[in-house]
Each structure stands twice: as C-alpha cells, then as structure tokens.
C-alpha cells in the first residue's frame, strides 16, 4: 500500500519551489515582450505580458480573465489594459476591470478582480515583483549591483532555460569547486588546484563562499546577495588576450518556471569605458560569447541529467559548505513567509 504521508510536500519546500514572495525576479529578456501579448509561466503563475505601444512600458497580469478564466494573452492590447478574447472584458494593468461590454454597469466593472504584477525593465530584462498582496500599491525599487548600474561597467545578458528545478542552478553557482573539474578544458578555468579549503565570509547583504589562499586563478569564489532580488556574483580571471577590463564578472539570477524548468539569467560584465568598452564589446560578440556558451552548456548537461531527487540523496563534505549555508538561508526565509501568512 502506498504511503500517502510520503506524498505530502513539505510546506517550506512548496514555498521555495515556486519562489519566495516579496522579491524581484527576472522573468524574460526584454526582446520577448512586444505589442502582441505573450503568456509565460513563472513563479507559480501563468502571466500575460504586453508592451504599451505609446509609452513602451511593459505590463503584466495573471493570464486569467476574472469573468470566466479565459487567457488574456489571446486578447487585444489596448495600451494600459487588455481586452479578453472571450467576451471583451477589459482589464487594466493594475488588475481593475474597466469595462464589461456584454453587461455595462455590472458589479464586475470597477472591481480589482485580476492579479497584477509590478514590472521593471533594466539591462535587457523584464523583472516582476512577486508580491504577497495581489494588488500591492507600490513595491520597493529594483536594486541591482554596480556591475549592472554603473556607467563604468558594460554587460551582456545571457538567457537560457534549463530542464531542472531552479534550485539546482543556485546550488551549481554557489559551488566554485566544480570549475576545476567540469570546466577544466575551458579557456579561462584550466588553472588552479583541484582540492581546496573553503571559508564563509559575511557581508551586509549576504555572504562570500571562497577558496582559502587562492584568488584570481580560477572560479575561486561566489557572493550571494539579497538586494530585494536574490543575485549571485562571481569572477573568472581572464588572460590579456581576452581584451581589456580585468577579471570577467558574472551576475546571476534564477527564476522558477515550473518545478522542472528554470529561467537562467547571467549578465556577463567587465569594468571598461571609452575605447576599451568598444573593444570589449566587439571581442565578446566575435570571439568570447561562443566560448562562454560552451562553458554554460557543460553546466546545463550535468544538472539536467541529475535525477529530480538528487538533492535528497547526497553525501556532502567540506567544499559543500556554501550549498548548505545558502539552502539554510532560503529555508529560513521560506519559514518566515509561512509564519507571516498565518497572522
């Protein structure tokens, strides 16, 4: 007889599976959203996104008409609102039903009956605030690190989707040790020791997980940051043949699509300005980008081919301290979210 208790999902795991609330998440590259509405599954929701033809602003609602549940993504873009294809019900970007053509003046008109999402656009990506309150008036501002905001830096967005729970991607990035093995044939990660001692170092916004006594040799450290958006930062040393700008910085953020699909966002950045900026951008597009995709593909193949329950059957050791620490942080945040929901 099947053990039904074993089939009940842990509440903390259920929270983490779809993404913590009250945080910003990247949901797609900016190029995905044009005037024609699109439908995306993200963060446990089916969303409709569209771009206002006049203002250029991206809007987002749950892809569910409050009348009968038809997909708004099949509807008509009316600028700051969208008209459902099924009965013409018009829903504004803040979730308010503004017009019911089939029954003018009915109680549905004027109600905030649809879940809305606050949207920000930056660095070639669309970000959504995953609010607990479906009609939150004003979210905190989107905060990004200097590598994505300072004019002294230049970056490219690399977006892909991996066939795994997004938490496996997070585990991969907080683990610098895999670079010396999985990426040992890489043009930038062939150096350094294949064994190392690690340490955790606290910061005001998170922590570093880093190799002791080895810096600027390989993938030697990862920083996890909570800026109201969860981000990860790492550096890869680059030879002079890789162009100006010193070490190559990667800023990462990872978004649940389903429990078997993750949106993987990596911004590849270097500190360059003037002619060096132009040189770096030319080199990246003409020489380096393909190499970087090859490295990322090595990660994808390793992670996608893990069993879904691989993290339930682990034997961890010293260089997995970062994985353990970050999982503990996320579980604590999920537990607080559950407690807050009870009040």
Automatic annotation (TrEMBL):
<dbReference type="Pfam" id="PF19112">
    <property type="entry name" value="VanA_C"/>
</dbReference>
<dbReference type="InterPro" id="IPR044043">
    <property type="entry name" value="VanA_C_cat"/>
</dbReference>
<keyword id="KW-0223">Dioxygenase</keyword>
<dbReference type="GO" id="GO:0051537">
    <property type="term" value="F:2 iron, 2 sulfur cluster binding"/>
</dbReference>
<dbReference type="InterPro" id="IPR050584">
    <property type="entry name" value="Cholesterol_7-desaturase"/>
</dbReference>
<dbReference type="Pfam" id="PF00355">
    <property type="entry name" value="Rieske"/>
</dbReference>
<dbReference type="GO" id="GO:0051213">
    <property type="term" value="F:dioxygenase activity"/>
</dbReference>
<keyword id="KW-0560">Oxidoreductase</keyword>
<keyword id="KW-0479">Metal-binding</keyword>
<keyword id="KW-0001">2Fe-2S</keyword>
<keyword id="KW-0408">Iron</keyword>
<dbReference type="GO" id="GO:0046872">
    <property type="term" value="F:metal ion binding"/>
</dbReference>
<feature type="domain" description="Rieske">
    <location>
        <begin position="24"/>
        <end position="128"/>
    </location>
</feature>
<keyword id="KW-0411">Iron-sulfur</keyword>
<dbReference type="InterPro" id="IPR036922">
    <property type="entry name" value="Rieske_2Fe-2S_sf"/>
</dbReference>
<protein>
    <submittedName>
        <fullName>Aromatic ring-hydroxylating dioxygenase subunit alpha</fullName>
    </submittedName>
</protein>
<dbReference type="InterPro" id="IPR017941">
    <property type="entry name" value="Rieske_2Fe-2S"/>
</dbReference>
């Amino acid at each position: 007889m099947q053990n039904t208790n074993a089939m009940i999902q842990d509440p903390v795991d259920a929270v983490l599976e779809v993404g913590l609330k009250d945080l910003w998440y990247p949901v797609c590259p900016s190029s995905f959203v044009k005037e024609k509405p699109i439908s995306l599954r993200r963060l446990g929701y089916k969303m409709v996104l569209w771009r206002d033809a006049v203002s250029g602003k991206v809007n987002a609602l749950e892809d569910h008409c409050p009348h009968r549940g038809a997909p708004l993504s099949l509807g008509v873009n009316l600028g700051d609102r969208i008209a459902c294809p099924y009965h013409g019900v018009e829903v504004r970007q803040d979730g308010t039903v503004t017009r019911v053509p089939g029954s003018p003046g009915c109680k549905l008109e004027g109600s905030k009956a649809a879940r809305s999402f606050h949207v920000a656009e930056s660095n070639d990506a669309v970000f959504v605030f995953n609010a607990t309150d479906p009609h939150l008036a004003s979210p905190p501002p989107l905060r990004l690190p200097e590598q994505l905001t300072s004019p002294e830096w230049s970056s490219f967005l690399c977006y892909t989707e991996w066939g795994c729970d997004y938490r496996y991607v997070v585990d991969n990035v907080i683990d610098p040790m895999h670079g010396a093995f999985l990426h040992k044939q890489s043009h930038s990660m062939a150096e350094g020791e294949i064994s190392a001692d690690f340490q955790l170092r606290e910061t005001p916004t998170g922590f570093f997980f880093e190799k002791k006594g080895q810096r600027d040799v390989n993938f030697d450290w990862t920083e996890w940051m909570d800026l109201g958006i969860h981000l990860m930062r790492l550096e890869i040393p680059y030879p002079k043949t890789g162009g100006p700008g010193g070490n190559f910085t990667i800023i990462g953020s990872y978004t649940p699509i389903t429990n078997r699909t993750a949106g993987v966002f990596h911004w590849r950045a270097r500190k360059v300005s003037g002619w060096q900026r132009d040189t770096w951008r030319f080199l990246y597009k003409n020489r380096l980008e393909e190499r970087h995709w090859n490295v990322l593909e090595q990660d994808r193949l390793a992670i996608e081919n893990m069993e879904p329950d691989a993290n339930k059957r682990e034997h961890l050791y010293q260089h997995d301290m970062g994985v353990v620490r970050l999982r503990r942080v996320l579980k604590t945040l999920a537990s607080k979210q559950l407690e807050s929901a009870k009040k």
